[in-house]
């Protein structure tokens, strides 16, 4: 996730009493909590306040409505909606919950009843038996959104690592709000489909295993998967795909395949036939040219890409690309790109023209 300065959290010892005021119509009583939540009417960790409508003029604090709104506005899940009325309504429907360390917030396989925004503390995303920890999430992270948006059972346990406070949005609230914003509903549906496609491919890789320089992957998505933008957004950063129709970019994003490479692993080799391009999700790579005595031409990081010419032009790789750190990339296969462009003929000529221009520029370097 990007800058979350509104959610700078004081130490646990200095935590003030938590109060998040919500409109009475949005009140969630403890007895109506998700069955995946440990909260019960008698739970000492339950803390839900609903006394008055949200005031956007409240003093800025880690749990204030203003801070919550600021965080929602810059979160990848909502950035693509670009609708402030929708985000404000989402914030006013959220309910505050607290969990003690080791409380189970989400249980693998359970129906999805709510999505969560972590205000304070940290959680672990782990297997149902607790043997494998897939990720740890901190303040500002969302979790549980795929199950709500795609109506799927939970894919993993989420357990409080420390005492946690979360803002919760129920499935019923999402169903009540989203249909009133058709454009937002479409954007959120695209985002959820892209996240789900990536999750399923990670799960396939983890179950099949991989040898060589590519290691096995977690089958759980974390906010890190989208801290440099969603899949469509990353594709659109490449000159080949600038300013193309959103439906084309979304369709293309569903074909991406995730990989992780160890440090020093060679991802592309100069002179080899190219069949794909790559978008960097995390880590660093170096671009090395054999025509420049093996010197490094560039260092690329999250949000950048490489190998784009080969996916459209029948030319060999122009450089070697090697992992500097552990690197996670999303691969776009040439064959999949060709299939998608066949559905968007108006895009095909423009993309090829840009590819030829990029190749000519590269040859002049």
Please tell me about this protein's structure.
This protein has 365 residues and is an alpha+beta fold. The protein folds into two domains: 19-184, Jelly Rolls, CATH 2.60.120.10; 228-363, Jelly Rolls. Helix content is 29%, strand content 20%. The chain is globular.
Please give a quick description of this structure:
By secondary structure, the protein is an alpha+beta fold. The chain contains ten helices and 16 strands. The strands form four sheets. Strands 1-8-3-6 form a four-stranded antiparallel sheet. A four-stranded antiparallel sheet has the order 2-7-4-5, with no helix packed on it. It has a four-stranded antiparallel sheet with strand order 9-16-11-14.
Provide the fold topology.
Elements: H1 65-74, H2 76-79, H3 84-93, E1 95-99, E2 104-106, E3 114-120, E4 123-126, E5 133-137, E6 142-143, H4 145-150, E7 157-160, E8 164-170, H5 171-177, H6 182-208, H7 231-236, H8 246-253, E9 257-261, E10 266-268, E11 276-282, E12 285-288, E13 296-300, E14 305-306, E15 320-323, E16 327-333, H9 334-341, H10 345-363
Helix pairs in contact: 1-3
Percent strand: 15-25%
Gyration radius (Cα, Å) is 22 Å
| Strand-pairing-aware structural class | alpha+beta
What is the H/E string? Answer: HHHEEEEEEHEEHHHHEEEEEEEEHH
How many separate structural domains?
Answer: 2
* Poorly predicted regions: 1-60, 211-224
CATH topology-level name of the largest domain: Jelly Rolls
* CATH architecture heading of the largest domain: Sandwich
Query: How far is it from the N-terminal to the C-terminal residue, by CA?
Result: 34 Å
CATH superfamily of the largest domain: Jelly Rolls
Could you tell me the mean pLDDT? 74
Helices, by number, come to 10
Instruction: For the largest sheet, list the strands in their spatial order.
Output: 1-8-3-6
Largest sheet: 4 strands, antiparallel
CATH class identity of the largest domain: Mainly Beta
Total number of beta strands = 16
What proportion of the residues is helical, as a percent range?
Answer: 25-40%
How would you describe the shape?
A: globular
């Amino acid at each position: 996730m990007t800058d979350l300065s509104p959610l700078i959290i004081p130490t646990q010892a200095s935590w003030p009493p938590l109060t998040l005021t919500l409109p009475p119509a949005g009140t969630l009583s403890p007895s109506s909590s998700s069955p995946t939540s440990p909260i019960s009417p008698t739970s000492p960790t339950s803390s839900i306040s609903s006394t008055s409508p949200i005031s956007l003029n409240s003093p800025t604090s880690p749990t204030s409505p203003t801070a919550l709104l600021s965080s929602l506005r810059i979160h990848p899940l909502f950035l693509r909606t670009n609708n402030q009325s929708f985000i404000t309504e989402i914030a006013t429907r959220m309910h505050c919950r607290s969990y003690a360390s080791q409380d189970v917030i989400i249980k693998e396989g359970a129906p999805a009843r709510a999505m969560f925004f972590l205000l304070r503390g940290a959680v672990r995303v782990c297997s149902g038996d607790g043997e494998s920890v897939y990720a740890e999430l901190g303040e500002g992270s969302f979790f549980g959104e795929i199950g709500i948006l795609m109506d799927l059972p939970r894919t993993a346990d989420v357990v409080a690592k420390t005492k946690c406070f979360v803002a919760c949005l129920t499935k019923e609230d999402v169903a009540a709000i989203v249909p009133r914003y058709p454009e937002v509903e479409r954007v959120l549906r695209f985002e959820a489909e892209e996240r789900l496609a990536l999750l399923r491919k990670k799960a396939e890789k983890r179950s099949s295993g991989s040898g060589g320089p590519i290691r096995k992957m977690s089958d759980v998505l974390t906010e890190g998967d989208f801290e440099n933008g969603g899949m469509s957004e990353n594709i659109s950063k490449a000159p080949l795909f600038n300013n193309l129709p959103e439906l084309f970019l979304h369709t293309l994003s569903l074909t991406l395949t995730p990989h992780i490479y160890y440090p020093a692993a060679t991802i592309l080799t100069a002179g080899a036939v190219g069949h794909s391009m790559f978008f960097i999700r995390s880590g660093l790579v170096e671009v090395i040219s054999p025509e420049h005595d093996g010197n490094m031409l560039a260092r690329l990081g999250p949000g950048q890409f490489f190998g784009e010419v080969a996916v459209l032009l029948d030319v060999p790789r122009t450089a070697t690309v090697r992992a500097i750190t552990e690197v996670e990339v999303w691969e776009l296969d040439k064959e999949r790109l060709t299939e998608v462009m066949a559905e968007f003929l108006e895009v095909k000529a423009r993309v090829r023209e840009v590819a030829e221009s990029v190749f000519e520029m590269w040859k002049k370097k």
